[in-house]
UniProtKB/TrEMBL annotation:
Classification via PANTHER family: HALOACID DEHALOGENASE-LIKE HYDROLASE DOMAIN-CONTAINING PROTEIN 3, PTHR46191
Domain of life: Eukaryota
UniProt lineage: Eukaryota, Metazoa, Chordata, Craniata, Vertebrata
Gene3D superfamilies found in the cross-reference section: HAD superfamily/HAD-like, Haloacid dehalogenase-like hydrolase
Organism per entry: Pandion haliaetus (Osprey)
Pfam families: Hydrolase
Protein name: Haloacid dehalogenase-like hydrolase domain-containing protein 3
InterPro entries xrefs: HAD-like_hydrolase_domain (IPR051828), HAD-like_sf (IPR036412), HAD-SF_hydro_IA (IPR006439), HAD-SF_hydro_IA_REG-2-like (IPR011949), HAD-SF_hydro_IA_REG-2-like_cap (IPR044924), HAD_sf (IPR023214)
UniProt cross-references to SUPFAM superfamilies, sorted A to Z: HAD-like (SSF56784)
Amino acid sequence: AMLRLRLLTWDVKDTLLRLRQPVGESYAAEARAHGVQVQPEALSQSFQEAYGAQSRRFPNYGRGQGLSSKQWWVSIVKLTFRLSGVYEDGVLTLMAEKLYRDFCSARNWEVLPGASETLSWCCQRGFRMGVISNFDNRLENILSHCNLRHHFEFVLTSEDVGFAKPDRRIFEKALCLGGVPPEQVAHVGDSYTQDYRAARAVGMHSFLLQAAGEGEEPEVPPEHVLPTLTHLLALIEK
């Protein structure tokens, strides 16, 4: 039977948008602009380390610990460069501020194949839509720059809400904003834990975006898996 859905909620990173190039490439280019040579691979590795340490110490952009997400990110950028052997404080601050701004623009993000078409199709069919994303408060601007913001009634970020997926409270907030019971809502995302399973835990439907051959999750029935976003259309036709 066709699902009777009224509201669709969407993850963003690696579902609708992705980085145009690896983080290390962006950081290396910024370093070069300041006359500093660092290998992109080294920076990518340092970034993973810095991001992991910061996330463990200050979860969800330091939201509960008095940090702004900008301070949170600036610390990560500086630590990334320090771990790669760049120590000059003035340059670190300039690069961190610039990269924080750059990652808010369409320069560093691109729309995934099929995303714009799928969102337009869903709007034309009369589905209401919103975003549920573990992102900082730059997301509204990023979606606007990438020409996707107009599709959504609301954009919920973990920084704004104070809870990150898979916490049920961020999904409950979306249901509350939408004013729709969970059985009339489907969530679309690329993470089994944070998107697929978390949405189902609050009684929503969900679909897992997963390219063919990417470690299939045994608990996900094939009819809930989207090899591409355009596969969604056949499953939710009104």
